[in-house]
What we know:
The complex is a heterodimer.
Chain A: H1 9-18, E1 24-25, E2 34-35, E3 44-46, H2 54-64, H3 69-72, H4 84-104, H5 107-123, H6 127-143, H7 146-166, H8 170-194, H9 198-201, H10 207-218, H11 222-225, H12 228-246, H13 253-271
Chain B: H1 8-54, E1 58-59, E2 64-69, E3 74-80, E4 86-91, E5 97-104, E6 112-117, E7 121-126, E8 132-142, E9 147-156
Antiparallel strand pairs in B: 1-9, 2-9, 3-8, 4-7, 4-9, 5-8, 6-7
Amino acid sequence: MKRSLFLRPALSAALLLAGSLPLTAAPQGTKGVEEFDPLAFPGKVVDDVIVPVPSEVFSVLDKLGEPNWQAELRKQAIPSTSDRTKLALLFGYTVAEGFVAVQAQDKEAVKDIGHDVISLSKSLALSKSVLPHAQAILDAADKGNWSAIRKEFDQTQKTVRDTMEQMKDMDLSQCVSLGGWLRGTASVTSVVKKSFSADRAELLNQPMLVEHFVNSISKMPGSTRDHDVVKSIQKGLASVLQQMDGAVDGFSKDAVTSIGKTCDSLLTEILAKK
Amino acid sequence: MSPPPEGTLLMKRPWSRLQALAAACVLVLGATCVYATVDESHDYAMEAATPFVEQGFIVREDYWNGEVKSGQKLQITHQLFKGNEYAFWLGTSQEGVTLDMKVYDEKNQPVQINAKADKFFMSVRVNPPKTGTYKIVFELKSKTAAGVLWALAYGYR
């Protein structure tokens, strides 16, 4: 799994603009040579990163085997708090848990998570925009309409993040993504560990996303950046990134275990009552 | 300074209010038009997605959008997972725009297949050879406008 310098978006952009990398390429499925000339790229790099939802990775794991998603459900109580940073992290966590419940096709778990979504949105003062989605999740759970539930969880997260960004709470919006990514990645490592293969482990090759989160945290206002849990996440992500950068020839089972442990320990902090 | 003639103030204030109201209406309508156009670009991207949804693609709710100088290339970095098939849908609400989009892997090899273009949108498919970071490079050239509104969405199956 050798990675080129182009993994790092900022560096990538700089190199592209400076035209310092040879980029002659053959298009897939043809014998001709297609030029991607960096000198002819007076382009702009769009900084916005869309973080994949957990089900994007889960769908690959489903194709590679039949994971026991029921065993991946945590069914953990969401602590009540007025700490908005933690609430945002918990919101992301809960939506990701919802994606696990969809994979497990567990109606009751989806409903419980739907109620957690409502409760968290009330604490975040976002219930007005979230309630229609949460209700749609509960209705679709009754019908066992899994694709509708998956879509609603995605919409719920987008609505919450958009509303936070409209309120200039970019840091909270990032925390939603972070909580979701940590929960999704914890599930992936758990499934991969139980049935290890190079193909499954390769799904953890996500350094661009980890770098994105690290950069996002470094740009957060001091009050959020210095939050105990956010500081732990920053430290944990550095360790995860190290594992990813070290996986030049693919991820070992130990590396998968290590990433999983880091995610689990961070999730324990997010879910702690204090 | 002599006071204004009687009635002037009375005449002026309602007129100012009318002016303010008219200005506010223009602003609101203008803003609505701008947002409608941005939304329309996404609508066209979703139109491009329709046949893919029928083939089992799951459309992500998040998408990229903005306005770009005509002919200026844009690059988006995105995480793809080997084992999924992806489709990217680029849309614009403006007429007379030529769209182009390619997807490159970490070694800058183009990996897109089945590129299809229409009047207001285009789509490409990608079967990522590896899990990792990919670059979506696209361009919108307008025959008439200096700036082009765009939206880029994606889906997977």
